[in-house]
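Write out the 3D structure for:
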Amino acid sequence: MDIYWLHFIPASLYLRQVLLSSSSVHIWETTDFPFMNDFNKFIQKIFGNNNPITSHVPLLPYSYEEAKIHSFVLNIIADILQTTQAMDDSTSLEIKKMEPSINFMNSEFRKNPALEEIASKSALSPNYFHRIFKRNFGITPLNYMIRLRMELAIKLLTATDKSVKEVAYDTGYQNEFYFYRQFKKQYNYSPGKLKKVRPF
């Protein structure tokens, strides 16, 4: 029996919520996904020596192998979604309540808005908003915005010629060294090292 460990963080909060509420264990027959025979081949071609740095970073330009891996993952997610029960009314209502605040965070995360301002967009108290956000998405509003900033940082570091300092400012960090510490804390390697691995 082959066992595959797939770890990823969905960009969509709503997909994150669905996956968190689904069964913690999923078992498939290999006949369910015939493409799994090719999965290891493509993983090895992209990540070769199991390099922990490049394993966080998509190949640029977008490669055939990466497109195939994305299609594999989407097939698996689609199968999970098909077998996952729809969220109950109370959960759906809570998420609907938070929608204005979530949209605000998605557009203003570079400015690192205060919890009070975020919650006010949904006419909720800060403590209540914090509680239902974490309960539904498994992450705090602050850490969600940090993740958005880090994801943007990776895009800028790998797809532009901007310096680490410029990327720090573009992602909302006024202090380059604080950005450096946050980035290393998230990914266990430095933004400068990423620039060397992916020089563009």
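Confidence is low (pLDDT under 50) at residues 52-61.
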